[in-house]
Design brief:
The chain is about 70% helix and about 0% strand. The chain has helices at about 5-25, 35-40, 45-65, 70-100, 115, 125-130, 145-170, 170-190, 200-205.
Length: about 220
């Protein structure tokens, strides 16, 4: 019988409330002093990183029961992650696209430019397909708050291989890989201008997954 870790659910709940509060705050006018102050605390981003850590813990606990990753195990893992992450992402993206196209755009002057910019190009089918295929472009045009699902699904694809590699080779290899990732994170504005490497720009967030490994 699987044992549910309820304290992880509690942490998810707290992080979710902080993210909702942060995005609500982001919809308020930019000139409000308390909005600027709270925004500079980076509570929303820290909460998203907490989500990544919790995902890493949960996936690590699942994989820790597997002695050797077989092809069948990996396919079963991918199917579960697909239904857990991509299907909700797809449904929300389609709903956002439809809502923006059936309701007329009207700027709300009492809210922020960020809030009013969302959905202004929703009639563009290219933007819709860019979101559906999770290429990372124009995510802010339909539903900017679901960008983290793109990161989570991408890292989920390679997570089992990295997990077993780190478990086999120990903490030194993990630290070397993390240092390499953060090096490219710091230098990508100079090195990664091409759109084809857009995935690499979001990969540093994925490194947070592996901080919980028991090495």
């Amino acid at each position: 019988m699987k044992k549910r870790l309820y304290f992880l659910d509690s942490l998810r709940g707290v992080a979710a409330l902080i993210v909702v509060f942060t995005h609500f705050l982001g919809s308020l006018p930019e000139q409000l002093s308390y909005r600027v102050f709270i925004h500079n605390l980076y509570l929303g981003r820290c909460s998203v990183l907490l989500f990544f850590i919790l995902s890493g813990i949960v996936l690590s606990l699942v994989l820790d029961r597997v002695q050797k990753l077989s092809a069948a195990d990996y396919v079963d893992y991918l199917i579960k992650r697909y239904f857990r992450i991509y299907l909700p992402f797809f449904v929300v993206t389609i709903l956002a696209f439809l809502l923006f196209n059936v309701t007329p755009y009207q700027r709300i002057h009492s809210l922020s430019d960020w809030f009013n910019s969302v959905g202004t190009q929703a009639t563009n089918l290219t933007i819709l397909f860019q979101n559906i295929f999770m290429n990372g472009e124009s995510i802010d045009q339909l539903d900017p708050v679901i960008w983290s699902l793109i990161v989570e699904l991408r890292i989920s694809i390679i997570f089992p291989f990295l997990y077993f590699f780190f478990r086999k080779n120990g903490v030194r290899s993990c630290l070397i890989c993390l240092a390499t990732v953060y090096f490219f994170w710091l230098t990508y504005p100079l090195c990664f201008r091409a759109k084809i490497l857009n995935w690499a720009k979001r990969f540093p967030y994925s490194a947070i997954y592996f901080r919980n490994l028991n090495l």
